Amino acid sequence: MEKEISNQPNWGPPEKPPIQNPVKVAMDIPLFYATERGPTSWNHSVVCGEAFADTVLKECERIFQEQNLALVHIGFYNPRKARRKDGTIIQPTRWSNHAYGEAVDFKGVITNSGEGEFLGIADMESTMPETLKEIVESCEKAIIDAGREPEIVHEGDWYHIGLWPL
């Protein structure tokens, strides 16, 4: 993983919260974005807070390298309000931890370092439950060890993995 100091993103609503210690992270694992037609290669740096990079991204990269997996997601940084799985805004309203650059919606993996089969969360639960458990538990432990509070929510088709804002 290569991390470089970054500026605050210049898009989104003007009242969005700042990212604490913003960085751009180039992962040493393949990343894919889940679309309606299936995962598509996502060749971008991850814009996030340094605490997220040093916890969640670091743990994911370690596990995924060990198991030759690619990460499939449906979003990292997104300056929006917190919402439920169905898209309704959580009341009372608050900024999502995506808006702080401290969350990922983890959709699944692609085997063989991105050359194999896409396994969504349900597939992982049935065919590689120990790997899924390791991802969730390792991220949770790293967040707690960093002195932060994890927000890890099983949303059915994906896991929201993030840090509660400071």
- Beginning-to-end CA distance, first to last residue: 25 Å
Describe the oligomeric state of these chains in a short phrase: single chain
Gyration radius, in Å: 15 Å
Overall pLDDT: 96
Examine the coordinates and then state which fold CATH places here, giving the name of the CATH topology: Muramoyl-pentapeptide Carboxypeptidase, domain 2
Look at the helices and sheets and give the structural class.
alpha+beta
Count of discrete structural domains: 1
CATH class: Alpha Beta
Task: Furnish the topology, listing elements before pairings.
Layout: E1 2-5, E2 22-26, E3 31-35, E4 38-41, E5 46-49, H1 50-66, E6 70-73, E7 103-110, E8 118-120, H2 121-127, H3 129-145, E9 150-154, E10 159-163
Parallel strand pairs: 3-6
Antiparallel strand pairs: 1-2, 2-5, 3-4, 6-7, 7-8, 7-10, 9-10
Helix pairs in contact: 1-3, 2-3
